[in-house]
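Input/output pair, single chain:
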Amino acid sequence: MKKILAFFLTVLTFLSCKSTLEVVEHSTNYSTLVGNEKFRGVIFLESANCFMCLQDKNRFSPTIEEIRKTEEILERKLKLANKPLINQGHGCPIIHKNLNNYRRQYFGYTDDNNNKIIYVTFNWDKYTLFNRLQGIEKDKSKKWKRELQNVLDGCSNHWEIKVNLKKEALFDLEINGSA
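Output:
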């Protein structure tokens, strides 16, 4: 009986910690690194440069609660949004099966109906010995914490999506191609 109780307490503790998202560091005056045991990401303030993106949008600074909600929506709805599996498989990750293996960048804006939208970029962050043997290595620079990371090609190692917080909907899923 004690073993069963200890097991359930361990599982309960693990589950209660699972969804925590907290500030890890204030990377710059306009970006904050957040994370938990599953992933890490950077929240950019409305004043941060979003090179060649969101130029005609009314930007806002996402809160940590809005990022938590964004992540919950992604976990629930990404598999369906990813139905065609564009640029995935054959050596490229299936994004909904590997969601926790990407580092994120979050930018906020409002659409014409005043819905809050979180634009999220995803870049592969889990490299293995096999990746290194292929010549693929982890980007160890801190540049991704300071500015939008634009990557060409790379298949589903690099992708982006928009999340409507009010409608709890995903849209504009774009997955890089392969060269």
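The beta strands are 22-25, 31-35, 40-44, 58-60, 102-110, 116-124, 158-164, 169-175. Confidence is low (pLDDT under 50) at residues 9-17.
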